[in-house]
Design a protein that fits this description.
The protein has about 500 residues and is an alpha/beta fold. The protein has 20 helices and eleven strands.
Length: about 500
Amino acid sequence: MDKLGGFSLFQQVFKSPKHIVAPMVDQSELGWRMLSRNYGAQLTVTPMINANSFVRDKVYRAKLFQQIPEDRPLIAQFCANDAETLVAATKLLEGQCDAVDLNLGCPQNIARRGHYGAFLQEEWDLISEMVRAVHEKVALPITCKIRIFDNRERTLKYAQMLQDSGCQMLTVHGRTRVMKGPKTGLADWSLVKEIKDHLNIPVVSNGNLVYHSDISHCLEQTGCDAVMAAETQLYNPGIFNNTYPIVWEVCREMLRFAKEYNSSFTAQKAHMFRLCHKFIHEYSELRDLLSSSHTHEDLLVVCDNMEHVLKKQREIEYSQGLWTAETDVLEGELYDIASSTPTFFDRHNVNIPIWRCQPKPRNHTRDKEVVVLNELPDGEDVEGLALNRGKSARKKALKRAKLMSKPQHEKKKHENCPSCTTHPRSNKCAHQMCRNCCKVHCIDNILDCEGHSFRIKTHHESRMRRAQAEGAADGGGNTNKNTSTNANRSEHNTEEK
């Protein structure tokens, strides 16, 4: 099919973007994408769309895919595990977006259950079939988003396979499938660079972006054509244009776009919590007000209260000399090294006022804590996973890692009951059966089982002894009575004679 691909697609259709907003479930909806474009985003991606539901359900289709002319260039991302379904879904969007993306990087459990995302990594034939089918049968070009393998050579072959199948742009998240949650760690920029050098299509790097200066460091170290920002961009949408905007102003702007484009209330509330992450737990009344919000109007009230509280705090910190009009500036500082460098905070004192949007800073002390997980659910071995989440999550992760580092003793495998062959036999049973079978066996054969505390034989013998004792006590009376009866019968017979 005649269509632009590779660098022609990247330059002529995507307009050679450097800043891309990642696909995020319930977070990269139309309202947020439009806000992101106001802060320097040049290419946006829809939230992940389930191809099967998109084909079957018109309501789902209208809800998940919203598009306006101002939101271009635009990529629609799908998750799928069937080539025909993916082709049918992408055909529905011809003319409504500029490309479709196949999600091969989602590491969440829902992707495991649904059999898509990063859990297709081992099924290269299926992946190749899906990419090739869209490339050959759909007017829209196809791109892919992947995670890396532990094995560098295997990762390069994986990327090459995607390019050979028809992928026109590859986004590489430099973390493995198991690097998530408390085990997130750092993305491997060196492997991303190897992928970029190995392929002949545009490559986008995803991971390790915290501050605006990280973008230039990433492009320099990886040689990639663009960067994609996900969670960091939710905390500070100004990462692309190197600004730290006022929180309540961004919240109001987000709510304005949300109302205009009918964003879900769940998405609006989630955006609010992320934008306010720096101070929301320090002001309990503000936190409770946001938590108890149920409507769009409630969130506007939260913005009003937030502005009042933070302006008051700003006046206090200004009066204490912590900030001045010269130091409290919108534009951010450009750092000479990437924030993923272990010595970053030794060289730079990053301090941003709480009334401005800001990322969650990386904790290099936790990055140094090495967790070795020998047997992961995915069958992968991963070392050196950094713990850069909350204190509670980190504590639990360390506890789990400590338990896993201890020698694991195999549990005894119980043999099945010889009678029912279903339940495990009890080691304490005198008859080597399970409890139910042992009870039946003891009743049928009048036996005891000390292990199960069955006293069938004991109780039977006790009843027999009581019966014999009662019989012995009544034996004399019964003999006299029988003798008298026999005498009367003899007398009666004599008289008749």
